[in-house]
Amino acid sequence: MTTDARLSxxxxxxxxxxxxxxxxxxxxxxxxxxxxxxxxxxxxxMSDIKEPGFFVPEFQYHPKKLSWYLSLFKQAGxxxxxxxxxxxxxxxxxxxxxxxxxYDFSPNARLIYLIRDPIERAISHYWHNTRSLRxxxxxxxxxxxxxxxxxxxxxxxxxxxxxxxxxxxxxxDKLYVMVFEEMIQAPEEELGKLLKWLDxxxxxxxxxxxxxxxxxxxxxxxxxxxxxQRFRHSAFWEAVSPFVHQRAKKWASGFAKETVKVTxxxxxxxxxxxxxxxxxxxxxxxxKLLGKPLPVWKTSQGNMKG
Length: 306
Description:
Elements: E1 21-25, H1 31-39, E2 44-46, H2 66-71, E3 81-85, H3 98-105, E4 110-115, H4 118-130, H5 143-149, H6 152-155, H7 159-170, E5 175-179, H8 180-185, H9 187-197, E6 218-222, H10 227-231, H11 235-240, H12 246-255, E7 257-261, H13 268-290, H14 298-301
Parallel strand pairs: 1-3, 1-4, 2-3, 4-5
Antiparallel strand pairs: 6-7
């Protein structure tokens, strides 16, 4: 990792504002929705950029300078919590060492981790990858082949494995685990529990969630070979961008992408049959971690119990 991102909490102790709240994952478990909910509160500031991924050196989509990272929070005022959301922080074994970097940076931070039926999460992640704007992440294989050939679809849903370094470093009391299905079924109750854990009051107007990142049968992808899209995120573009007229930027942004229809077959039944033996073990581990059963995870448990 760059020198800037290795700085410890002592190095940034005199820098304000500085993040003390991290939504660390899991991918495709409602982090965008929760980020939006928390950002709407007056006592929490969440970065405008979701997924800055600053503490993952391999994730090069955004700059790795500490000055850039802290600029995400410069508009924060006297909010109790200043935070960001990056699901890349819990993508072991692809990205290791993230928990240690954040602990060195902010050892008293609060952590929020969302979990979901591991089979449903894997399937959602597959469809997300078929729509990826980044060519290196685009999924072109049939769903079952992707699940068999790429173990990351399963490993990102091995929640106890993902959380092991976070619990070891921060302690269980600094980590709040939310179940996606429970949050969707009873948002007022579940969000109220989260706010109580954060020592924040619930809104007198009630607690509501706006569902974001809902899958459709159409998606946006880079036009052609994606050259324009890559150019818009290059170092050269960052240098010349301030001198380019806003209308030209808007046109280039629109032209760089095109809307297409999904053509890959839906193989959900075959994937469920393939993943269920693995998922049952993961569910048992997660129930032990949470100290409660998870009957809402019907896909992973429904056809193999009783």
